[in-house]
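Exercise (ungraded).
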Amino acid sequence: MVALRKPQTNSYEERGDNGDSFPFTATDWVIVFNTRINKKDTSSKTQLKGTQAAPSATPNVDHFYDGAKADVRKAWADVVSRLLAVGLKFRVQKWDEIRLAIFVYCPEKVLAREVYRSRVVDWLNDSGISELEPPALPNAESAEVSTPATTPAERLRLVHELLTAPTYEGGAGLTSDADVVGNTDAVGGKYIEAIYAPHDREFADKWVKSWAKRWLLSQQDIDAIRDYAGEKVAYYFAFLRFYLASLIAPALIGVLDYWWHGAFSPYYGVLTIVWSIIVISLWNRQAEWYATRWGTRNFSKIEKIRPEFRPTKIVIDPVTEERTPYYPYYKRWAVKCLITAPITIAITAVLTLVVLGIVSADVYFHKFYDGPGKDLMGFLPTILYGGCIPVFHSKYIKLAASLSDYENHPTDTQHAASFTQKLFTFNSLVAFIALFAESYLFIPLSNAIGSVLQQKGFISSMGFEVTPETLQARLIYLMITGQVLNAATELIVPLLTTKATTVMHGLHKSKAEKAKETEEERYVRRVRSEFERPGYDVDADYSEMVIQFGYIVLFSVAWPLAPLACLVNNFLELRADAFKICKANRRPVPQRADNIGPWLKNLTLFSWLSSLTAPSLSILYYKWVPDEQATNQVQQRLPTLLVALILSEHAYLLLHYLVSEATKALPSRGWERRKRAEFELKKRYLLRAGID
Amino acid sequence: MVALRKPQTNSYEERGDNGDSFPFTATDWVIVFNTRINKKDTSSKTQLKGTQAAPSATPNVDHFYDGAKADVRKAWADVVSRLLAVGLKFRVQKWDEIRLAIFVYCPEKVLAREVYRSRVVDWLNDSGISELEPPALPNAESAEVSTPATTPAERLRLVHELLTAPTYEGGAGLTSDADVVGNTDAVGGKYIEAIYAPHDREFADKWVKSWAKRWLLSQQDIDAIRDYAGEKVAYYFAFLRFYLASLIAPALIGVLDYWWHGAFSPYYGVLTIVWSIIVISLWNRQAEWYATRWGTRNFSKIEKIRPEFRPTKIVIDPVTEERTPYYPYYKRWAVKCLITAPITIAITAVLTLVVLGIVSADVYFHKFYDGPGKDLMGFLPTILYGGCIPVFHSKYIKLAASLSDYENHPTDTQHAASFTQKLFTFNSLVAFIALFAESYLFIPLSNAIGSVLQQKGFISSMGFEVTPETLQARLIYLMITGQVLNAATELIVPLLTTKATTVMHGLHKSKAEKAKETEEERYVRRVRSEFERPGYDVDADYSEMVIQFGYIVLFSVAWPLAPLACLVNNFLELRADAFKICKANRRPVPQRADNIGPWLKNLTLFSWLSSLTAPSLSILYYKWVPDEQATNQVQQRLPTLLVALILSEHAYLLLHYLVSEATKALPSRGWERRKRAEFELKKRYLLRAGID
């Protein structure tokens, strides 16, 4: 987070080298500039000059269009001058009446400087394998040869940093967040509709095909993702691969134990809890190994400041004597404690009540109600649910985004963590409230509710009751529909909408037309069509997996076949996600990561909670006697339950401690590799010092 | 732990430079060689040649005495040859019929090599403040000038490492542990009675005097301890200073709340728990700062292997291609799980039963018994206790030592942690069992026990009962006697015994005799008298403080004036400990440390437990009605208790998490200092690289 460059002062008018052409299939990033001109106004005459054909070099960019308002002109001039100031080259193409596409290319010389700078910072922060010598100095003559970007992802990441880092950190400070323009030195805002990197079609095709053919993914496959899409996405696939393999154990145990003891078996419950502890601990080791392998250890220390960060002032840092953006940490804490926390708690409370109400209605109509239109009324809650939750969800996303913005996190990682945690709270409530309500409310009080309803005259007889089987059925329903819905919203919907908008914009060509295209035209058409795709959101995929993990550890004691179902699902998920990234989404913005971020905490939390749910479900509902009154049975089991809960939670914490100590004692692969490098270093150094 | 030197081959016969004299007041370490010759055999004739006057240079050491057995000769030859092999100088003095004292001095050239080696390893491990350049090479001509030891403690530590490190790590491999000779390459064993450094009288006198005069200790005082006695001891004083200051808050709250609400106030209980969380969290920050200041960060990675370590084999490390001692970690785990753990559990169970029995007898005789000799019988349990526990304790210490040895830890820090944890388990059981028994057994069941005793005819009337006041009285008794006993055993007993043995050995001189002494003679007499002192055991002092912390957080809700009492005690303790180190104990062996080691875990454990004891005591005994039956009162409060326990423990864990997150967010002083150094480094490097 330390600024290593001063902003450069030369404006774009002074520079003559923008006319230099570049092979535009080498485009690094595409910036879509949306003039936000009202479409109705543009219907009569063309507002933008320029060509819809291949993008051309544009030496005179600030007279590129006329008829626009002053603020559009200003925004355009800002963007263009910032691009030139950091030494990037670009070509502009008109896409439609309101959009201009800027194809940005980073000259090798500029990139070499960025790569070198990044290597030095990495070296200083001991990010990967220790090196005695800092990276070799770039030669002024042959900079591009001495420090090449090692992977496409690194190249894209560094250029993206150059585009988005604030000017005081040496970047161009472009942003597509309208709120921060004016508050920070960022420019663009609402006029920048998108910044995305074009896909490498050849690589993507090869990748998807190769995965489809094989059962297992190798380490090389994960590395290939890292090279293509950066460490953050690669971590997701690495986690998914690890988690998929680890599911084999509970899947086997689940099948055997279900066959042997049936649902709610305490043996299965205990084994699942133990499994969850071990899996999380082992994953941590694996994650550390990846961080060493990919050189992202300690990376959070050197992460760039996001352009949306609003420092209260720029202070002269007493430590570094540099101009440093400053935002007092106590303010962030105050916002978190006094604004975010109460709002989140209030909303989750309302959400809980709403879901609880709908679930109650569902239980009522399915289990107690025997009046007219029983079959029809049974659908009412589902319709209510389908109508309410998505609306609620989309409103909540906006709120969460503005709350996270308001917290004003300096880095992308922190901002993303704050935002995704808020969404995840919502998602997991929706996923688990019904199950919690049924487990600890509806089943134990089944008779009581029934007799109250009968007394009040709502129902005439006590035909049905809520039983442990109801819980099992709901779990199965939630898991299966959840997985199907996810597949649909993630994969099929984007594919269809992309297709539709592509056709709408006249980008769809027949085979004959395609054959006639030049390579340039084909490239531009593809890049244009990728703009219609949604951005890839790796956190949505994590959320899905972590909630699945939650189903397994928290409630699968009710249905021990769940791990097997998840094993099958994840085998397909791994491939579907690869397909999604390459074919249905824009290319992900490469980001560094040294673990799976906040998701690790969520996994641990679910694992901890499982030490309460799994034993309680086993104690309450194992060997349930259907003919006996629920209330009686639960009352008999209550004392055992209370004692078991206290014991099992403490046993969990003890086991957790022991396992983490044991895994710490084992030297990890990452540690060994670092040790080897360190030793080489020592030996060389001591040899040089002439000591033995 | 990586060996950086090969053992040197030159034996002492080949070396002629031992004759070089050194000013023996410059002695670094004294090794006391005990021939273990039976005293009876020596009564008639002198077994050892040599002089009892000032130690002389001994060019022909292996003919220094005759009449000794072959194994004594062998041991002597081993010790002397090892000393010569590593390049140390020494002079030998005969102390009595069976003891030879070896005054060891490390020539500046040898020391400079050690200092330099240590600096390079520190630099490579990023132990303190980052430095761009490794330490400057020692110049062959003027080695002592280029890399001096910065503190007396560092000098002593490095020479001690040279004396005790195994030969494959380049040391002399001397040990006073008889069991390991033969199993390892260590020599000496039972023949080495002690290895200790002489005190610096001038410094010690100044230090003790300056502390006695002042109320508060400054940072400089702590640094002075570090310079004199090493980081491990300095950490103890730093902790004590910090803890002393932090006690002001609970002392104030305690006095006010005791005045306002009386004993067992829930307000005081909650505040104590919160205090304990904050104190531990803040101490961690402070400890990190000291580690940066003293350059001991990451030091555990580079700690030397202890000579007592028994590798199963010396393997060629696949990583470093060096000969490395190897002991499979799973063996240590197996020993821990299958031997140490069951034995410790069994012994603590027996101890618990014994203490419980004695406490029961105590309660019986004091509260229920009304037969003949009531006053006399009341002393029986105390006598039993005083007779049993010390015997039990001394046996346990031996067992704990051999168990820890058997676990075969490679470094001193790990070995000490394992050993002290075992002792601490014992000490805290002795400290707390009685209180736990009274809180949760005797008071609630007071009536029941009374009526059973009455029915069985043991007592005639139910005059007394065990009440919350009994608990308070016992807490006060335990804390006060504990502190007085500690002062006695730590300070007065060693002073008296040292005095006695000094007189016995004829070392005590009258003032007139002292005046006649040369400086040399005085020095030798003092060094000789320091041999009679016990070694300083910093862990015993830690144990005392941590148990005191335990009394405060676990039980002081019964007596809110406890923090005030501890504040007063610790004010004196801080000074007494300084006096003890300088005047009553041998000089501590300087050791590095980067925190207070296992004690931090014990503090955290007590803090955690307090979330159960403090609320339960408050709920059970706040506003106790003396006239109502205890069993009834407790039964009424039981449901509240159960719910409160579950809630308070979870509230504790949540608060703990929040506080540790909040303190993490605050940049620490240590971090800032490292950041500054790192930035300087970066700037220099980037300037050199020609980038901005």
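Further reading is listed at the end of the chapter. For now, observe: Chain A has 23 helices and nine strands. Chain A touches chain B through 40 residues (CB under 8 Å).
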